[in-house]
Amino acid sequence: MVQQSIYKNGSKNPPGPPSLPIIGCFPQMSTNPLQFLINAAREYGSVVHLGAIGPQQLYLIADPDCVKYVLQENPQNYTKGENFQDIKLVIGEGLVISEGDSWRYQRHLMQPSFHRQQIAAMVNDMTHLTDQMLERWQKKAVGAAIDVSKEMLFLTQKILLKTTLSIEADSDTTELTQAWNTIYKFLSDRLWAVIKPPISFPTPKNRQFKQAINTLRTVTDNIIQQRKQGNQTAHDILSMFMSTQDESGKGLSDRQLHDQIVGLFSAGFETSAVTLGWIWYLLSKYPTVERRLQAELVMVLAGRTPTFEDLPHLKYTKMVVQEAMRLYPGAWVYARNNLADDSIGGYHIPGGSMLLLSPFVTHRLPAFWDNPEGFDPERFTPERSVDRPRYAYFPFGGGQRQCLGDIFALTEIQLIVAMVCQRFRLNLLPEHPVECQPLLTLQTHKGILMTLEPRTELDKVSQRNTQKTLLTLNSDS
Ligand code: HEM
Asked: Which residue owns the Cα nearest ligand 1 atom 19?
């Protein structure tokens, strides 16, 4: 039953930029989607009408209270619905895109595998794989350039393969990752395409896409079958999914297991990888922040590899991660369809519309963020956060469909940031342009090329000198 709107009698139509029949604002939007959406929110306010794409009205929901209404207060009226037809071919009926009772049942069964204590048990894998990457970096020449976007993608893929399936991806080209990369590229290319030929057409790209889906399915199914036949034992997310049962003793079917695992690939490494890439970019641009971060690492870890228990003490590190996810949220936009007519923020929204929720836009609204374009981790101290509306910041979504892997992601990112910073300073190549490329996640156009500078003893001395400041910061927050 759809709940009545809290914004009763909203009958006005939301304002918005001029749009064309059938294609709405798509031409302007596809040229520079981020700037277009930011300008739309700043110019037209909390709810913006972006015209109609075909028969479907399109709206941007920018104001935190309106976002809260959609995600948390009336989620029954807002489905992921039709927006995922392409990706559905890949992840089937898994948690990420299912709805209603099917979603509720799967979430109930999967949630325990992502509890804090389960994530704590994955920390050794996360730090071990990060260490392997750092050893590889250590062998490179001082000042060697690397593309940190790619490096972070390899690392987060490896971590996900190890923690979900116990696969040791010793090269970057396992069948699974290759298949997934083909799928990701195909879906990203279609995102901003004006004409999308049906996937059933036998074009070369469509055939490649379907081949990659088959590979993904075959490899995952083989792993599941081997586990079922007892040929392998492992302590990973797949084994947790296989042993989970509902109150009647029923577990997930083979098909559901497959869809959940593939669903985790779709949600669980690209987002973390792009976040890490943006963190390295920001730290190289803001050396004062980088020095404070360093000092905290020396003070809390004194050169040790971080553990799960260290994370609550790495307060500044966490704020750096939070602030990077404010400026560059990996999941920069997502969509909902409303089942019935509704009223949001006093505006009428006809049933069957598509709503865009964009953390990238809301995270930069001047009404909620001073100097919104600046990188200032300390805006996340408790004192400065207390008056901020909950949905001024929603990098992991919210309400009942909040990201299932948020603790996994934050743990992984915090650990990687700490471990990399302990060993290297990453400097952006001065002539290398870094521009946002909003695809399925918030990528960069040409990667992020950086040079590796190993930490020196001198560094460590200067870090100790700034510890005093940090001690004050930690005791304040
Ligand atoms: C920085 C990293 C990540 C970001 C920014 C992120 C963001 C999000 C967001 C915004 C949603 C909600 C989308 C919507 O409501 O339409 C979501 C859902 C989800 N995420 Fe994440 N995510 C991240 C990492 C992960 C990881 C590491 C995993 C698993 C290992 C994961 C698993 C999921 C799943 C299963 C859902 C669907 C939940 C449901 O519908 O009940 N995510 N994520």
From this structure: 403
